[in-house]
Amino acid sequence: MFKAADNVTVMQHAEEMSRKIKLDFKIFPSCLYTYTMNYRKGTKQAECHHHGKGMNADISLHKPPNTSQNIYPINSHLSTSHVNYLMDSAAENANGFLLDSKDAKCIVCGDIAPVLKPGKSFLNFETLDHSFDQSRVNAVTPMTHLFMDMPNVDLIIPGTETVVNVTRSGKVVTLINLCLTEPETVFRVFNEIMYLMTIPSLDKFFWNPETGRLKEVMGFVVDNGPSEAPASFLVQMLLVCLLKFLDLDKVTQRLFAEYLSKRNPVERVHAAENNALSSHGPFSSKMIHKNASPGSKQHKENMECMAREVIQCIGKGMYNKETIKCFRGIGLEEKFICRDEEGLKSFSLLSDERKEEDELKYRPINNDVLA
Fold first, then answer.
1. 14, 150, 310, 355: most buried by Cβ count inside 10 Å?
2. Alpha carbons 21 and 124: distance in angstroms, whole number
3. Lowest mean pLDDT among 67-81, 300-314, 341-355, 356-370
């Protein structure tokens, strides 16, 4: 399959290849252009020549996406090796290790196409990234969690060089949050883990089938956002809180180096989510109240209705031969179990000596999620 920036280059490659097959074979570029796999499948010309007849030149005019790695950070190998080691450790202890690859997908704005469609793929053009409306007023944010499924692959042949490639996949759970009133913060991300434990259909991801208790080790693979970096003091403290509160043996969080976020396994899920959103079309943000000021009760009712529509749409998507589990997010901070952000920030400003002398204790908030 040929892929090039424009159709002229593709046709030239196809003509050169046809000449190599048979020297006295002559074919016009217009004929090659007609027998492409994506050339106007709904037109009469395509139906007369190739569409639906099993006749195809297998020549694609799609321009390859600009997702290649152009910058190579100095710590790319180190960060990737840490993540691979985390996945290998989870594969060795599948019953006692929960590995969650998580990432927030791009926002879904109301009243416009949820997925950017630039138009004809065989034209040579460039489109700026995120050039569409990204207002957080009438929008929701899908937070995707990929609970990694670690198959055991043992293939060792003595005396030979054998390469075994394993595609890490798993079960997808997506939470829908309102952009205006439920921003993505460190505390929200960590409280979502405990909120997911309250959903009965997800118990199999958190419980060890051998012991009947919670899995002893939890690991998280994230992108390189500043609010998720393991070097962040809030992230470190919340990891400790998660470790102590759930009585775990180990909690770890790894991230990829800068410019390498596409290596995160959860990125493959976004394609399935985009496919479902693209098939649906624009979501209305004024289904209940036509005129509602941002932040008002009427506006929240509109956004809750839009969130339900997005949940139903993404819930029809397929990934790893299974439907995507999609739920409403944790909601307001009143449902947070850990939300002492000011106390943690004050504690971080103390010196090491004063931290040792500090007697402040952190306790979970008694609410419905804790119960």
1. 310
2. 29
3. 67-81
Query: What is the DSSP code (8-state) at residue 283?
Result: B
Q: Which two three-digit tokens encode residue 264?
A: 């995160």
Distance CA 224, CA 230 (A): 10
- In the 8-state DSSP scheme, what is residue 189? H
Q: Where are the domains of the chain?
A: 1-64, 76-357
Q: How far apart are CA 294 and CA 302, in angstroms?
A: 10
- Largest Cα span, the chain: 89
Encode pLDDT of 340-355 as tens digits. 878 888 888 888 888 8
Q: Provide the residue type at 117 as one letter.
A: K
Q: Which two tokens stand for residue 68?
A: 């290649």
Spatial distance between the Cα atoms of 148 and 98, rounded to a whole number of angstroms: 8
Contacts with 91 (C-beta within 8 Å, 6 or more apart), sequence order = 150, 151, 152
Calculate mean pLDDT across residues 118-134.
Answer: 55
Which residue shows structure tokens 């793929």?
A: 121
Return d(Cα 301, Cα 178) in angstroms, integer. 11
In DSSP terms, which residues pair with 327 in a beta bridge? 175
What is the token pair recorded at 279? 């098939």
